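Give me the fold.
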Amino acid sequence: MLALVQRVRQARVEVAGRTVGEIGRGLLAFVCAEPADNEAHAARLVDKVLKLRVFADEAGKMNRSVVDVGGALLVVSQFTLAADTAGGNRPSFSAAAPPEQGRRLYEAVLRLAREQHAPVAAGEFGADMQVHLVNDGPVTIPLTLR
């Protein structure tokens, strides 16, 4: 699975003008499933995101996780993370999981995250979403779990 994680002061996702997910301080995680991924990969991804030490400790070092600071998590599906641009200027998305598998694994990520942490907000799988965020730092971390 692939993820792009951003430390945010706030973030929200809108679909057709309505807010479907919103958080204050925490992490915004864009996630993408690949064809070889399964629920074990989703579990490893959730574990990694929740333990990722990107928040400052008392000394100002990035040494605390979203769990440690009581932050929120906003999870948004984004198959475009699997883009391959090596062959030209139009990205290929053939490395992304098919929609049914992508939805199943996205829902697994949400379920697993909610079992381990709160609050967890979400985008809407397959929807045309507008994501608004205030990146804190900025801190943006790409994750690839294989």
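Strands lie at 2-15, 18-23, 26-32, 55-56, 62-64, 72-77, 120-122, 129-144.
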